[in-house]
Design brief:
By secondary structure, this protein is mainly α. The chain has 6 helices and 4 strands; from the N terminus they run ααααββββαα. The longest helix has 27 residues.
Length: 185
């Protein structure tokens, strides 16, 4: 016989509902399903099932309000990360006196772009999370026929993105050509 509280409610069901609500709160705070699964000692697929079940219990008006709040927050975070991606790298310093390192050939200040790289990764993760939250990442079946035309090159796309991010042409990173396994022998 199921355990009941003083009002006659099933405690097991109550604990399950509370756990699902906690999982959903953690997920909304940015926790991954894997991390939530570790916390509750269950596989990611079970966490996904619990989240799906809990989302179905949220009234549509509350769900829409939450979705709008989430979208606004993601937009602010995306703008912040985009600003960081556009910033110049921090000058690299060396030695006990912290002298700024310059390139011996060009004399240009050597910069550390790790913040930009990290911000770019975070921006990508935020965009993916937004797409998932809004359901725009779902696969769509599209039937089409015709030919595909490829315009431009990788170098042209890099130049376009560099211009969009405000990078100087000399700050572009050369992409080495792929080497075959025969080259390394």
């Amino acid at each position: 016989m199921p355990e009941k509280d003083s009002t006659g409610a099933d405690l097991k069901v109550e604990r399950l509902v509370r756990m699902r609500a906690e999982m959903y709160t953690l997920w909304c705070q940015g926790w991954t399903q894997e991390k939530i699964g570790e916390r509750y000692s269950m596989p990611r697929s079970t966490v996904a099932d619990h989240l799906r079940t809990y989302r179905k219990t949220i009234p549509p008006a509350d769900r829409e309000a939450t979705r709008q709040d989430h979208a606004r927050l993601l937009q602010v975070l995306k703008e912040s990360m985009a600003d960081l991606v556009k910033k110049d790298g921090t000058p690299v310093t060396a030695g006990k006196d912290g002298r700024v390192v310059t390139d011996p050939i060009s004399g240009a200040v050597v910069r550390d772009y790790s913040l930009r790289i990290a911000a770019g990764r975070e921006l990508r993760a935020l965009i993916e999370r937004e797409a998932k939250a809004l359901g725009t990442d779902a696969a769509a079946k599209v039937e089409h026929s015709g030919t595909i035309a490829v315009e431009g090159t990788v170098e042209a796309e890099i130049a376009r993105l560099s211009a969009e991010l405000g990078l100087a042409a000399d700050s572009q990173v050369a992409i080495p050509a792929a080497s075959s396994s025969a080259d390394s022998l």
